[in-house]
Specification:
two-stranded antiparallel sheet, 2 strands, about 375 residues, homodimer, 16 helices, Farnesyl Diphosphate Synthase, mainly alpha
Chain lengths: ~375, ~375
């Protein structure tokens, strides 16, 4: 996201920077209040908030920024408190999802730091406590994620009536949560049930998972949420969704490519992490359909094996390249991106908002982290 | 709860039965709608809702009933939709907490059925899926709990303005969630850090954990939430809390006694489950302070060992009895209960509400399950 500003008009860039800062300050202030409440009542539990605060300091803020420009595009005023609160709620929701996702995927790192369960494991070891460090890490991270999910909701409610019962924004927020959890479940299910399901539908299944767990959540819902909060018409929100869905798909396919081929120094995750976790992405689905029987057995054998070594990851990578899957994924990203830009041109928003959305779209699909 | 009705006036009992039925119907209808949404979008994910629906069919509905009588005591009308929705939200929150609690405690059973993670493990084994069944069970249950937590919130929001931004009911709902998660964390922390902390403060630490993770959550917050929704004065809510806190404490100490001495046929949990899980309850804290050095080492050695056998559980039980801990716990329950009844008499509520609260209090502290 660092090379984003040059492509934005100065005023738009300054406005976006101010919003980012307001979200960071909002997050910091909100969590500081919660930390104070816990310190007063149960000081030992304040570490839960510390873990959340450290995690939410990082990240691209893609969802908050999309909500902001969705808000602005629907006529919301610059730097409004509602938009900042929505950004805070979205960032907290994302943090909650990441904390639990890292438990599920047994990920050691997140945003270049230890994942939350590993952070608590380390605390256990440093203190020389009793019983198993990994069980404590899991329990503490599970509870930190639950708290973060609750705080996300608490922050969202502070928006007031525009996000209250029966509002379109509330409907979107609810739908987003249900879909992310359903999508995460489909992802977990595919890891275990995928091998016994028809291989020729593996790409389609991967695309469905990707839409639920990521595409709609990362782009469609935040953008529409911002628009709904500002009272945007259903027609505007529909056009937002049509623009944002291919963007979210391209975003996630880029993520999948980075999960196998990304540079650990840039992604903050170990090389080939997705293979170790057994993620059945579009890349994997395509490879399964375009390789020999023995190659398929090799892939199935090593996918999801936590102890997979670097030479094997190298071998799997070259298999994915040889099968044409990497090229196919890059082609999909390109085609989806073309659709994104076409639909962006059709959005009934100001040139400033359009320019900001274009820059976000660029950053989302061209990123290396 | 089965011997509750005889102590209630007929009209009150009928009103309470109608409310219970309305909450059950509300839960069923709400979850059916969610299930339908998932079936339409991602049929494979509907099992998450099935697990939640099965779990919420059971339970004593203590929290929902307290919310109801809190509502009625503050002038809310009988059978009002707001009170039913609050009950649905509280029951869903409780289900979410149980699903994640059972992951943390590695509990095999809940409400006489397999716990949710075991349910999903079993599905994995029956389907003959790939990779490890226990990892799949954990992941699926973690996501089912997250979904349940979100749905609890979604149900709560449908109450509308009385539970909206800035309302007292919302403040209580928020506080309840934070405190439960903090309390659960303190519980987990005590399991690992307890052995290296001063033994003579073990009972005090156990009481603090009990207040956060259970007492306030099980009684104070539901009762006050109901009262706040009906617009009860802060004075009334304060008197609710003063009545409900000792009730919640007695309720949880009863739970701790049942966790060590309860009849598996009545509790739906294996005998001595709390010892296996390493729960450092008031019972354990008291025992540590009233036994010999060798007994203490024996207790520390076996607490939290998943493979602890039945003869050892028998030995630990007799140690707890010998130390005077069981008698002390029963005495605490008695004293707390006396305070409860004293404060109940001081509540400015109708005789019907007072009678209903008395019956709930009886059932909470005299139960065997």
């Amino acid at each position: 996201m660092k090379d984003l500003r040059p492509t934005l008009a100065t005023g738009t860039a300054a406005e976006q920077a101010a919003y980012r800062q307001a979200v960071a300050a909002g997050l910091g202030g909100f969590l500081e209040t919660k930390r104070g409440e816990l310190l007063a009542a149960a000081p030992d539990a304040a570490v839960l908030v510390d873990a959340i605060a450290d995690l939410t300091e990082g990240g691209k803020r893609l969802r908050a920024l999309l909500a902001y420009w969705g808000w602005r595009g629907a006529g919301g005023t610059a730097a409004a408190a509602e938009a900042v609160r929505a950004g805070v709620a979205l960032e907290l929701f994302q943090a909650a999802a990441l904390i639990h996702d890292d438990i599920i995927d047994r990920s050691d790192t997140r945003r270049g730091k230890p994942s939350v369960h590993r952070r608590f494991e380390r605390q256990h070891r440093m203190q020389g406590w009793s019983l198993a460090a990994d069980r404590y890490g899991l329990a503490a991270a599970l509870l930190a994620g639950d708290l973060c999910l609750s705080l996300s909701e608490e922050a969202f409610t502070t928006i007031g009536a525009p996000a209250g019962s029966g509002s379109e924004a509330r409907r979107i927020f609810n739908q987003m949560r249900t879909e992310v959890m359903a999508g995460q479940y489909l992802d977990v299910l595919e890891e275990v049930a995928g091998p016994s399901r028809p291989a020729d539908a593996a790409v389609d299944r991967a695309l469905q998972i990707l839409r639920f767990k990521s595409a709609k959540y990362s782009t469609v819902h935040p953008l529409c949420l911002g628009g709904a909060l500002a009272g945007g018409s259903l027609e505007l929100l529909r056009s937002y969704a049509e623009f944002a869905l291919p963007l979210g798909e391209a975003f996630q396919i880029r993520d999948d490519v980075l999960g196998v081929f990304g540079d650990p120094a840039a992604t903050g995750k170990p090389a080939g992490d997705d293979l170790r976790e057994g993620k059945r992405t579009v890349l994997v689905g395509y490879t399964l359909n375009h390789c020999s029987g023995s190659e398929r057995r090799y892939l199935e054998e090593h996918l999801g094996s936590p102890l997979i070594d670097d030479p094997t990851i190298e071998e799997l990578r070259s298999l994915i390249i040889r099968s044409g899957a990497l090229a196919a994924a890059e082609r999909m990203i390109e085609e989806l991106t073309a659709t994104v830009y076409e639909r962006l041109d059709g959005l009934a928003v100001s040139p400033e908002v359009s320019g900001a959305l274009r820059a976000l779209a660029d950053a989302a699909v061209r990123r290396d982290s």
